[in-house]
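Ticket opened by: R.M.
Priority: normal
Category: complex prediction / small molecule

The reporter submitted a protein together with magnesium ion and asked that the result be attached to this ticket for the collaborator who will pick it up next week. Submitted input follows.
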Amino acid sequence: MENETGSKNFIENIIEKDLAEGVYDTVHTRFPPEPNGYLHIGHAKSILLNYGLAKKYHGKFNMRFDDTNPTKEKTEFVESIKEDILWLGADWEDRLFFASDYFPQMYEAAVKLIKKGKAYVCDLSAEEMREYRGTLTEPGKESPYRNRSVEENLELFQNMKDGKYQKGEKVLRAKIDMASPNMNMRDPVLYRVDYVEHHNTGNQWCIYPMYDFAHPIEDAIEGITHSICTLEFEDHRPLYDWVVRELEYPHPPKQIEFAKLYLTNVVTGKRYIKSLVEEGIVDGWDDPRLVSIAALRRRGFTPESIQRFVELCGVSKADSSAEYAALEYCIRDDLKLKRPRMMAVLDPLKLVIDNYPQGQREELEAPNNMENEALGSRRIPFGRELYIEREDFMPVPIKKYKRLYPGNEVRLMNAYFVTCTGYETDEQGNVTLVHCTYDPATKGGNAPDGRKVKGTIHWVSAEDARPVKVRLYENIVDEEKGVYDKETGKVNVNPNSLKEVTAYVEPALMEAKGYDSYQFVRNGFFCADIHDSREGQPVFNRIVSLKSSFKLPVK
Ligand code: ATP
Ligand code: MG
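Result attached by the on-call engineer:
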């Protein structure tokens, strides 16, 4: 995870110190998602960070589903999460784990704490427990059940496990310190009763461990050394340390927190995405306007572009927000040399070359990528009638306009020089047809007499081009209003976030399959939609335009 300047991040410094001092002799990390939703760009940071550290220090990386809360978890998410992580380039090899497989060990761990006098069964209701807990400025009060004997606690905890109590009737709590300034240390709940079916263990258990108890145990069982999580768990670290210490693990793991990755004006919250899906504003969790990993993949982002983006963002302890433009920069830069540059006209206007012989046709040779010869070349059909972009012609040119207007000569990319001789309009004055003449001596796009033209425009042959559906996107968020409406709690949706047009494209593009991507010259990078493309009839999503305002930060 070396950043672009080659300096180390603070986690690498901690790890190297630990290795040097012999605190650990290896590095073992994990990514522990809860299978309760799709992964998003923020998770990618955590995945690539954990995986990258294990690789860098020749250690191990575990994939672990933190499935200790059965109410929200589903197998569907397990599969999508695995797919996304592999696609991103992180590989757990044979190290796939489920926290729920450790329920027996967690139960034993709880029994051990009870026997040490460090945990007790408490009968306070949730509401009473809240009252007893105190506040940030006032200490809490000890539960009247706090001093039950070890024997009584063992029996009651066994009864909890055996289903003798209703949900909420009893919980197991750690016996730590009701006066601790850290609220997390005020006898936190370790186990609760709940009668819900678990996606992995079915109805085997009716008690489930709380996250703060389960997580350090999971890490310790797997031999994790550096348990990397996000900043909101900083205040939970003393409890993490308490659990691994009291359970006397010989090589306890260490929790390290880093700041979450946020994107400005981007929706990442599960709750909000869920309502966008339910209201039909987006066509699913992988709608190309979203930033779930599946959505980014569908939009045409590559794993390399996301890796680069995450590296650019760096790893730190301070919350900050990255610009979506930085993500766009990364995909543009990644695809620039990798993808063929094809011609597609998104807003067609017909151009007739009046001196090109009627009925004549030819094929012109064009390099697939001027900057990367390895991509080879292709032949493009050319004829008397073409489509050009409507914006590439102006009856009356504005200042500095270099494209077609009456009397002006331009280059048709990879073809000939043409000079505009006139145009036709409909009754409303809209231009319907542009006339021009070509210079046969300029084949390939250069004049033998050395004369220059200022503009180069792209085109497709009207007879050979095929119509395809193309989707152009803007941010789903109305940036002027901000992401969320404070009153309704809903996303401020940009009504123009999706625009569909019929474009005319080179015939070669009709072979595109889902996820295939291309540059459409001057119009951006486009990717064939995985859901809506059919054999021989692709639908294209714009990944990103070619214009950028983003500048690489100078470090
Ligand atoms: P929630 O807890 O609301 O269900 P979550 O996004 O925290 O959602 P988890 O499955 O708990 O989901 O996350 C898995 C891992 O990804 C955790 O280690 C978490 O800290 C990390 N993570 C989550 N969001 C981000 C983010 N925006 N940036 C970096 N890491 C993140
Ligand atoms: Mg979480």
